[in-house]
Write a structure and sequence with these properties.
The complex is a heterodimer of chains A (about 260) and B (about 260).
Chain A: E1 2-13, E2 16-27, E3 31-36, H1 42-50, E4 57-62, E5 75-78, H2 90-102, H3 110-126, H4 142-155, E6 160-164, H5 172-189, E7 192-196, H6 200-206, E8 209-214, E9 229-235
Parallel strand pairs in A: 3-7, 3-8, 5-6, 6-7
Antiparallel strand pairs in A: 1-2, 1-4, 8-9
Helix pairs in contact in A: 2-3, 2-4, 4-5
Chain B: H1 4-23, H2 33-45, H3 55-87, H4 89-102, H5 111-118, H6 122-147, H7 150-158, H8 163-200, H9 206-213, H10 219-247
Helix pairs in contact in B: 2-10, 3-4, 3-6, 3-8, 3-9, 5-6, 6-8, 7-8, 8-9, 8-10, 9-10
The chains are: A alpha/beta (about 260), B mainly alpha (about 260).
Chain lengths: ~260, ~260
């Protein structure tokens, strides 16, 4: 049963095509990595999934719902930067994940507030940030900020989680730790995840599927004439993790 | 070291005054520091013979009141219009150009109009301060709102926030420290407009007093008032700075 359906979307800016003929169906609970060279439209695709932009043609449906007009609670997102609110403490950031969508003024009061704080502290305990509950995010390391951002996004209970190069700004050691954290969170929630990354290995390590975006048609005299699309849709859950060079070769059968 | 420049200026004044007074003991241009101190003492303690009020404190109170209402009004207008222009593209398209042109009107040229329209009472003076400072605050605030990373707004949307919640829980908290900063910068012009308005038509206020005693070459009174105004302006600036640091610990220190 397909959960996310992308139906023949095209996107162009000022008549310049960026994406063309992108179609895709994704099962519930799948982890989809999106890779490709820079400027190949993978971030555009994520913005379309997020409903931050609307496609020039085609539509994207989640669980059969009509295409969204703007970002909303059914889509959680973590960006590379600015994903947590710097003017709120760590704990307030987590509570915002509930209160922004559930209360009229974006704030809980009284018993509700205490209960939300209790839940937030439990979550912080689980993600190892309990000791920073009342600190401001500026005091957190990059990895801690991203852990908080992921937990915050999940607090709003989205249908899909969208990650835009979430670990791009982290050092390699922290990145490995974040991979384990993300896999753990995903195991717990069974969340459907889309992650844009420029790190192929990361894409294959975390994803069930790896989508490669590229331009199938290329006019050397007019490089901007055609948009990109999904050129490869790889199954990353077979034991053999392809090396970064593999996606050039034919789709199937390069590995025993 | 901090005090060194102050001591130097005082010393230069004392020497210059001494040179002039030794040539002509009745010189009024540079009264001796002791004379100024005596005058200051008389000003702050002796009630006026006619009204029984101590004019120094009456002037101070009425000037501060005008300044506070004018700047407060300007800050409120700056924040609300800045927010509207920064957050909503339609309002920006309509108003941004208008405010840009409006801010180019030299406020003092409007003073005669204000006197004609509102008479010589309090309203025209307060209006001059507000009109003089508001366009700058609106432009600065809308710029600050535009500088809020798009990621933060999208993130709030994905947590389910409405436009209202984005405004009161994300945008306003993030620009309030900037508002205080902008108000600090506009205190200089605000004093200028206050003194100008009081000098032209008033019956009380620090500006009125300075321009009144100018006729008698009462340098000792003028200098006392100048030092007092400087001290008041400095205290306001410092208070706002500390207020900002206390209220918004996440924003970091201001430096200045």
């Amino acid at each position: 049963m397909s959960y996310v359906t992308v139906d023949d979307i095209h996107q162009s800016y000022d008549g310049r095509p960026i994406l063309e003929r992108v179609s895709l169906t994704v099962e519930k609970g799948a982890f989809v990595s999106i890779v490709g060279a820079s400027g190949c439209g993978k971030s555009t695709f994520l913005r379309l999934l997020l409903a931050q932009e609307r496609p020039t043609r085609g539509d994207i449906r989640i669980d059969g719902a009509p295409p969204a007009q703007e970002p909303g609670r059914e889509r959680g997102v973590v960006f590379q930067k600015y994903s947590v609110f710097l003017h709120m403490t760590v704990c307030e950031n987590l509570i915002a994940g509930e209160s922004f969508g559930e209360s009229r003024w974006g704030r809980f009061f009284g018993a509700k507030k205490r209960a939300a704080r209790e839940r937030a502290l439990q979550t912080l305990e689980r993600i190892g940030l309990a000791h920073m509950a009342d600190a401001y995010p500026a005091a957190l390391s990059g990895g801690m900020q991203q852990r908080l951002a992921i937990a915050q996004a999940l607090t709003a209970r989205p249908r899909v989680l969208l990650l835009d190069e979430p670990f791009g700004a982290l050092d390699p050691g922290t990145r490995i730790a974040m991979h384990d954290f993300l896999l753990e969170m995903r195991q717990e929630t069974g969340m459907t995840v889309f992650m844009v990354t420029h790190d192929l290995q990361e894409g294959f390590k975390l994803g069930d599927r790896v989508l490669v975006f590229d331009k199938p048609r290329w006019d050397p005299h007019e490089p901007e004439a055609y948009g990109a699309t999904i050129t490869y849709d790889l199954d990353a859950r077979r034991d053999n993790v392809p090396t970064p060079a593999a996606p050039d070769a034919s789709l199937e059968g390069t590995h025993p | 070291m901090l005090l060194l420049p102050f001591v130097a200026v005082l010393a230069i004044y004392a020497i210059a005054s001494d040179i002039r007074l030794s040539e002509n003991p009745r010189d009024k241009l540079l009264p001796a520091p002791t004379t100024i101190l005596e005058t200051a003492q008389r000003l702050v303690s002796e009630p006026d013979r006619r009204s029984g009020e101590i004019l120094f404190w009456k002037d101070t109170a009425i000037s501060l009141q005008r300044l506070a209402i004018g700047v407060g009004l300007a800050a409120a207008l700056g924040l609300s219009f800045g927010l509207a222009i920064g957050l909503f593209p339609h309002i920006r398209a309509t108003l941004a150009g208008f405010v840009a042109v409006l801010s180019m009107i030299p406020p003092l040229t409007l003073l005669p109009i204000l006197f004609i329209a509102f008479g010589l009472g309090e309203i025209s003076k307060i209006a001059l301060i507000a009109i003089g400072v508001t366009p700058f605050l609106i432009r600065d605030m809308s710029q600050r709102v535009l500088e809020i990373p798009a990621e933060q707004i999208v993130k709030a949307q994905t947590l389910g926030a409405s436009s209202l919640i984005i405004a009161i829980r994300v945008a306003i908290p993030q620009i309030l420290p900037r508002l205080i900063q902008a108000v600090r910068l506009s205190l200089g012009p605000a004093w200028l407009f206050l003194i100008a308005a009081e000098a032209i038509a008033s019956d009380a206020g620090v500006g009125y007093r300075i321009f009144l005693v100018r006729r008698f070459l009462a340098m000792d009174v003028i200098l006392t008032y100048v030092v007092w105004i400087t001290a008041l302006a400095f205290i306001m600036d410092y208070t706002l700075k500390r207020l900002s640091e206390g209220l918004f610990p996440w924003a970091g220190k201001d430096g200045l």
